[in-house]
Amino acid sequence: MHKRGTRGFTLIELLVVIAIIGILSSVVLASLNSAREKSRDARRVSDIKQLQLALELYFDSNGGYPTSLASLAPDYIAVVPTDPSTSDPYSYAALGSGSNCSSYHLGATLEDSGHTALDSDADATAGTVCTGGGTDFDGTVATTYDVKP
User: Fold this and answer.
1) Any domain includes 3
2) Is residue 80 a contact partner of residue 51, using CB atoms and an 8 Å limit?
3) How far apart, in Å, are the Cα atoms of 15 and each of 4, 9, 51?
4) Per residue in 81-130, pLDDT tens?
5) Which of 11, 78, 100, 137 is deepest in the core (most CB within 10 A)?
6) CB–CB of 67/59 below 8 Å?
7) ∠56-45-67 over CA atoms, to 5°?
8) What Cα–Cα distance (Å) separates residue 31 from each residue in 22, 36, 41?
9) 81, 47 in Cβ contact below 8 A?
């Protein structure tokens, strides 16, 4: 009679451990995705506030707002920020009549429709765009965080 050694794990034990690790990792990844979404939204709100400050600095120096955000760099902001998930520029329209850009509409689309920043945004509809001031957007969309001066 040959006695079998008790060294090592059985196939069933290994499969159970692998299944448990798989379940735990899926729970962690689901939590991580939510945190990443909130982080991107926080960055969008911060970028909009930085752009607002740069626009006001531009207004003080030039007596009007620029027709594009690209005019802000590098004098009023080091680099014009872009959306963290798409690398697209934020929505911007210079508003006014003719070439007199006396206002603006600036916005970003947030991923979380319940974000607290949406409670205090402008929720503005499209306005009259000054000459070369881009295309205005609808800020009343539920996930659009938009600001005006």
Assistant:
1) no
2) yes
3) 22, 10, 53
4) 999 999 899 999 999 988 889 999 999 999 998 999 999 999 999 889 99
5) 137
6) no
7) 40
8) 15, 9, 16
9) yes
Where helices occur in 7-125 by DSSP H, the ranges are 11-62
Domain presence at residue 118: yes
Give the domain extent around 141. 11-147
Q: How many domains does the chain have?
A: 1
Q: With respect to residue 106, please indicate whether it lies within any of the assigned structural domains.
A: yes
Q: Is the peptide bond before 84 cis (omega within 30 degrees of 0)?
A: no
* 45 domain residue, yes or no: yes
Structure tokens of 147? Answer: 């600001």
Under a CB-based contact definition with an 8 Å cutoff, are residues 84 and 90 in contact? no
- Distance from C-alpha of 94 to C-alpha of 97, rounded to nearest angstrom: 10
Contact present, 130 and 100 (Cβ < 8 Å): yes
pLDDT in tens, 18-72: 999 999 999 888 888 888 999 999 999 999 999 999 999 999 999 999 999 999 9
> Residue-wise over 59-75: b if at least 16 C-beta within 10 A, else e?
beeeebbbbebebbeee
